[in-house]
Amino acid sequence: MTLRMWFVVGTGLTLLGLGVGNSADPPKATPVKGFDDSALVERVIAARKEYQNSLVSLYEHYARIGDKERARWVEEELKAYHLMNKPSYRLDIHDVPPATLEAKVNRPEANNLFRIAKDYKGKGTGSEYTLNQRRAEIVFQELLAKYPDSDKIADVAYELGELYESRSFHQYNRAAAYFERAYQWRKGSGTDARLRAARLYDKQLGERSKAIELYRDVMLNDADKDRMKEAERRLAELTSTRK
């Protein structure tokens, strides 16, 4: 188990008054014409990785020389870093993997990570619940990063969609994107991922055209009668009032 994973799944972790409450998507802002934020977002992502790696190196140094107190300080700081809200400013930059991935290879290592994450997801109450959802997110993302061809990636995408939609995150853009990946990575998926993405674009994100597109896809691709009826009803409402 890597040091990073140890901080996630180790026993005895507490919230330490870190205040990790809901972390909703920021209000939509009108992009400034001619301004591209991609370079700035790339810098933030790189800085996050460098900060985390520096903490891990410092922990390993203190552990090697037997400085338990300073090692504990670093452990607490790294734990706080994992728990803090880290918004996705651009979903297309190092966040949501491409739709072209295929869930096809049975990898035991990926299966083990999936079990670990599932054990935490939805577990606990109050602050412990929030902590467990952050643990689950980190492990699911670890799986996607390390094993992008695993036959579990479609399931992981669905689980991440649920996490980002939940009260621990309220990151609806991310949730919708991962629900989309859940059915894109496994053709003919029998889950409600497509409908859940449509609901988010419709109710939470106000992206009417995208919602209409996905409701139509539900009617064309889903086999569940109740989901098809919901999509048909909402599609009729959206198109009848469209100006």
Task: Itemize the secondary structure elements and their pairings.
Blueprint: H1 3-9, H2 38-65, H3 68-83, H4 108-120, H5 126-146, H6 153-165, H7 172-184, H8 193-204, H9 208-221, H10 225-240
Helix pairs in contact: 2-3, 4-5, 5-6, 6-7, 7-8, 8-9, 9-10
Q: Number of helical runs? A: 10
Largest sheet: none
Strand content: under 5%
Termini separation (Å)? 56 Å
- Cα-based radius of gyration, to the nearest Å: 20 Å
The helical percent reads 55-70%
Provide the succession of SSEs: HHHHHHHHHH
Structural class: mainly alpha
Output mean pLDDT: 86
Low-confidence stretches: 8-24
Keywords for this structure?
63% helix; mainly alpha; 243 residues; 0% strand
Written overview of the protein:
The protein is mostly helical and 243 residues long. It has a domain of 62 residues. It is built from 10 helices and no strands. Helix 5 packs antiparallel against helix 6 and helix 9 runs antiparallel to helix 10. The radius of gyration is 20 Å and the shape is elongated. It starts with a helix and ends with a helix.
Quick recap of the structure?
This protein has helices at residues 3-9, 38-65, 68-83, 108-120, 126-146, 153-165, 172-184, 193-204, 208-221, 225-240. The chain is mainly alpha-helical and 243 residues long. The protein starts with a helix and ends with a helix.
